[in-house]
Amino acid sequence: MSFHPNYSFKTIGVIHSCYTQKFGIPRQPGLVNEATATLELLPPFNRVDVIEGLEDFSHIWIQFIFHECIKENWKAKVRPPRLGGKQKVGIFSSRATHRPNPLGLSVVKLGRIYQKDKQIFIELHGSDLLDGTPIVDIKPYLPYADIVQDAKGGFAPSPPKLNKVTFSPLANKQCKAYLNETGRNAATLISEILSQDPRPSYLHDKENKQYGIQLWDINIRWQAKPGHFKVLYVEKVK
Ligand code: SAM
Q1: Mind listing the pLDDT tens digit for each residue in 146-203?
Q2: Which CDD domains match (predicted)?
Q3: Which of 26, 114, 163, 186 gives 20 to 30 Å between its CA and that of 200?
Q4: Pairwise CA distance, residues 226 & 46, whole Å
């Protein structure tokens, strides 16, 4: 048996996403449907022939680099949020970001494919990727092979429990103004993100603590209240 010990990959595209920072990004794709991202193909891959036929699929797999983790070391054991941050599992039994090879894998809903200024853009729905994420491969999702009926989900056997989210009158007004100005439905996006509880496990019992999340060009201030999360205000980044 002979193989090369190291391989390198080409970046075929880059993600433009509503998630401009890591805090708040859902832990898997398909959990926040309002999240839209656009994959821009980069030269020499920005050519129509490489994606010919892709529009016939509803979903695609994308493989990407956890580029914001590259400077940090990988860990042999990690504490998955689904285990309350208390128990450890092996890195290869988890979907954690700090891996020996910082490769991510997400299945996303395929949106419009279009060309602008000689560039090719592919719209993705429900992604869990940070703005600027480098993409190394795209593959069509094949239901006959990729759906596994009797699969077991280990420490995450079912979708995460959803939390209630409310908005202050001020935050409601600001979301409406932002929708009118940009066409972006910040209220739905924020609701879906917060309902997943983005807080690290060690802060779960800290009631009334305030948090900030940045999406696109807006800062969202919210508070963990007993039984729900309250959005306090939504402001443009200065
Ligand atoms: N679905 C992918 C997988 O299983 O490989 C990613 C799962 S990982 C647990 C999801 C988290 O990765 C997000 O919550 C976000 O914090 C982080 N993330 C997303 N894009 C990233 C990037 N480019 N660099 C570093 N971390 C990133």
Answers
A1: 999 999 999 999 999 999 999 999 999 999 999 999 999 999 999 999 999 999 999 9
A2: UPF0066
A3: 186
A4: 49
Q: Which CATH number fits domain 165-236: 1.10.287, 3.30.2310, 3.30.365, 2.30.30?
A: 3.30.2310
Length of the chain: 238
Nearest C-alpha to atom 5 of ligand 1 is from which residue?
104
The ligand 1 site (C-beta within 6 Å) comprises 22, 25-29, 66-69, 95, 97, 104-106, 128-130, 133
The residue whose CA has the least distance to atom 22 of ligand 1 is 66
Pairing of β 228-236 and β 165-167: parallel
Mutation probe of ligand 1 site: the residue of 78, 95, 97 with most atoms within 8 A of C-beta: 97
Supply the CATH classification number for the domain 13-146: 2.40.30.70
Q: Which residues contact 193 (CB under 8 A, 6 or more apart)?
A: 24, 26, 32, 35, 213, 215
